[in-house]
Amino acid sequence: MEQPTSTALTDQAPADPAATDDALATQPIGYWSGLAHTAVTRHLRDAMARVDVTQPQYWVLNRVHGGPAAPTREEVVAQLTSLAEGPDDIARVVDQLLHRGWLDADDGQRLRLTDDGEAARVRLRELVTGLRAEVHRGISDEEYVAALKVLRAMVANVGGPGAV
Residues of the chain with pLDDT > 90: what percent? Predict the structure, then answer.
């Protein structure tokens, strides 16, 4: 068993958005990770709403585009449902994109992007790349990787999903 570090023995203070740098070690990770998730997700979804697209629609466009073979509706739903807000959300998104003409389904129910769907995916990729640059402003790739490694270790420490 690994020996605890000195930070493992640090008292936890109440969440404080105005905490000074020297007090950050006492701040609750749940508060700060939740705050980051909410702020970044809201920023992304607000930007997508301005171009009449939702984040789950973007997920589906990327999933349909990204595989070696055209996925079935069931495969897309199974792969993306854990990211969605409810068990039926991704199936609804597939229906929306079929209705919008951004997806097509063949006789075997394999999904493919239409030309309009691919054009939308490319536009959204450009939008998301710009948003990522905003979120990462002033943060080096090394700092970003270090932050994710810390979060991944915390998830592993509590046996969370995707723990490595």
Answer: 70
